[in-house]
Design a protein that fits this description.
The chain is of the alpha+beta class. It folds into 2 domains: 78 residues, no CATH class; 236 residues, 2-Layer Sandwich (BirA Bifunctional Protein, domain 2). 39% of the residues lie in helices and 21% in strands. It is built from 12 helices and 10 strands. The strands form 2 sheets. It has a 7-stranded mixed β-sheet, with helices on both faces. Strands 2-4-3 form a 3-stranded antiparallel β-sheet. The longest helix has 31 residues. The structure holds phenylalanine.
């Protein structure tokens, strides 16, 4: 009889259920009314009296252990229902955590910044709420210049000296005030102009301006840097042309066109049949601007350029309405991360 008790005890310890239902089946088989333990109890009645004490103890131990084990296994199964040997329903749809995508304006800004950082430019930033000095006066805007007019600039009502910057050239002034040449900075940022919102204009947009000041910097350096940028941004076949223009802070000044990347310069409705698209303004920094920020204009010269990020993004992606960039329709915004 002692062998039977030990054998059952061993099977209780070694029992491994494949599914939760196996545990209950095992319990009935061992501890049930017609189970093995009950049969052993029956057998115990006929045991010789001198054996009763020891066998009784063994039987009780077996019973306690069997109950313990069944409860243990049941608790385990309740904690880990997936641990019952089944791998679950493989056809259930997975939960889809859609990864976010970067905003197209951020993508294009990052690309422009990375192109110029390969030319040794570092990023400089400045405040969006500025004063007249950094946005206009230090940049050689005469007091009567129309850009200061209420039509274009958002002034703070209580103090017209404080305004929302209309271009990121203010960061260039702040850089020149802090740092002596050589200076090579790229200034990305949000700018504000009092314009009616349309497909081509918005009262908030993004600019990237660049400033390069050192000894002997020439217009040829400017042209070559912009050609490099155009090829990196629009492809190896991109060509540029410069048209004379005017900005108060540069002399000479130019407007830069890039060959239309949609028609390859043949003329289409995006470039309005001209084969060229305007992408930025640029020029040699006016000596008055250098002097206003404490840089010796006899020793140093430099160039500056500035472009609208929305405009570059529209040309790169073929987006015709600027307002789409601000409406935050996820279906629109999602399309660009994979294009670049
Ligand atoms: N600040 C000019 C603008 O906002 C762009 C520009 C920058 C032009 C630097 C020339 C040089 O339109």
């Amino acid at each position: 009889m002692i062998e039977k008790i030990n054998d059952l005890l061993r099977r209780v310890e070694e029992f491994k259920p494949k599914a939760a239902a196996d545990i209950e089946e095992f319990r009935i088989k061992v501890l049930g009314k017609k189970g093995e333990l009950t049969a052993l109890m029956e057998e115990f009645k006929a045991v010789a009296p001198e054996m009763k004490r020891e066998l009784g103890q063994q039987l009780n131990r077996l019973k306690t252990r069997a109950l313990e084990r069944v409860n243990e296994l049941k608790a385990q199964a309740a904690r880990q229902p997936e641990n019952t040997g089944s791998i679950g329903d493989m056809t259930r749809p997975g939960s889809n955590d859609a990864p976010g995508t970067r905003h197209p304006i951020s993508l294009v800004r990052n690309e422009i910044v990375s192109i110029f950082s390969r030319l040794g430019y570092t990023v400089a930033e400045g405040p969006e709420i500025e004063d007249d000095w950094h946005v206009f006066s230090a940049l050689n805007f005469p007091p009567e210049h129309p850009a200061r007019d209420m039509q274009d600039t958002f002034f703070i009502e209580k103090n017209p000296d404080i305004l929302l910057r209309t271009h990121t050239s203010s960061i260039q002034v702040r850089t020149m005030e802090k740092q002596q040449p050589p200076i090579r900075v790229i200034c990305p940022g949000r700018v504000f102009r009092n314009e009616a919102i349309s497909a081509r204009a918005h009262c908030i947009f993004h600019q990237i301006e660049g400033l390069y000041i050192d000894e002997h910097v020439s217009f040829a350096d400017l042209k070559q840097s912009i050609l490099y940028f155009a090829k990196e941004c629009f492809g190896e076949n991109a060509r540029i042309r410069l048209r004379p223009s005017y900005f108060p802070f540069t002399e000479p000044s130019a407007e830069v066109d890039v060959s239309c990347n949609l028609c390859g310069g043949k003329g289409c409705n995006v470039c309005k049949g001209t084969g060229w698209l305007e992408i930025m303004g640029c020029g040699m920094v006016d000596p008055n601007v250098l002097e206003a920020s404490g840089i010796d204009s006899r020793k140093y010269s430099g160039f500056a350029f500035g472009m609208g990020v929305e405009r570059i993004a529209m040309l790169k992606f073929g987006v015709k309405d600027l307002r789409l960039y601000f409406e935050n329709d996820i279906r629109f915004l999602q399309q660009f991360e994979s294009v670049l």
